[in-house]
Design brief:
The chain is of the alpha/beta class. The termini are close together. It has helices spanning 2-11, 23-27, 32-45, 60-72, 131-142, 161-167; strands spanning 13-15, 19-21, 53-57, 76-82, 91-97, 104-110, 119-127, 146-156, 172-182, 186-189. The chain binds guanosine-5'-monophosphate. The site of guanosine-5'-monophosphate (5GP) has 17 residues, from strand 2, strand 7 and helix 5.
């Protein structure tokens, strides 16, 4: 998506450890006009799918998911990151290894908000090693819901997540796919039609 690629080129900052900082428009300050274009593009790419719920993970996925949900006209459920090891109550849980923080945490969704009747589209900001997506997929699986696919804003294709999840049969649509990035050559995007 050219608009997004141009913005990443203009405002993205490549940091050590394969981290791309996009705090000025995606992860801290949020450009809602851009989010509307992202939401519209997700809707266009998943136009052939029936979606009853959008699932994301706190915190950065929530804003994007909410704007996208306006186009799909469905509710958003966000998986909460739990601080306690054992979560009580009627919840689905999964363990996720954090890419940015380098530790494991548990995510959870109440059984009230995900069930066998749901057709779920996952939306998230980044796809790196795929752990967040794997965790979210497990929640959908445990709920006996149908996983329609995953919409990602920025995929870093030089990390394994995208390949791994597509091999598992998940439909992953990424609006910008980064082939490589470093301070000398800048950010190289994969061409998409
Ligand atoms: P994964 O679980 O695929 O390894 O990583 C995905 C999660 O890690 C995303 O939800 C995002 O919050 C975070 N993340 C991964 N790579 C980056 C990055 O380059 N920049 C930022 N800002 N977040 C990232």
């Amino acid at each position: 998506m050219k608009l997004l690629e141009d913005r990443i080129r203009r405002d993205g900052k490549v940091r050590a450890g394969n981290i791309l900082k996009v705090d000025s428009f995606l992860n801290h300050q949020m450009d809602i006009d851009l989010f509307e274009e992202l939401g519209l593009e997700f809707k266009r790419r998943f136009a052939d799918c029936e979606v009853s719920k959008i699932l994301t993970i706190e915190a950065s996925g929530i804003g994007i998911a909410c704007i996208a949900a306006r186009y799909f006209k469905v509710p958003v459920v966000f998986a909460k990151k739990s601080k306690t090891k054992n979560i009580a109550g009627d919840v689905y849980t999964a363990k996720v290894e954090s890419f940015t923080h380098g530790r494991e945490y548990e995510i959870m969704v109440s059984k009230d908000f995900l069930g066998p009747e749901d057709k779920v589209l996952i939306i998230d900001d980044f796809l790196a090693n795929g752990n967040a997506l794997l965790g979210l997929s497990k929640l959908v699986e445990d709920a006996d819901a149908t996983l329609v696919g995953a919409g990602i804003v920025i995929e870093k294709a030089f990390q394994e997540g995208g390949k791994l999840l597509r091999q598992k049969g998940l439909r992953v649509e990424s609006l910008a796919i980064i082939e490589s990035m470093d301070e000398i050559n800048g950010i190289i995007f994969r061409r998409q039609d």
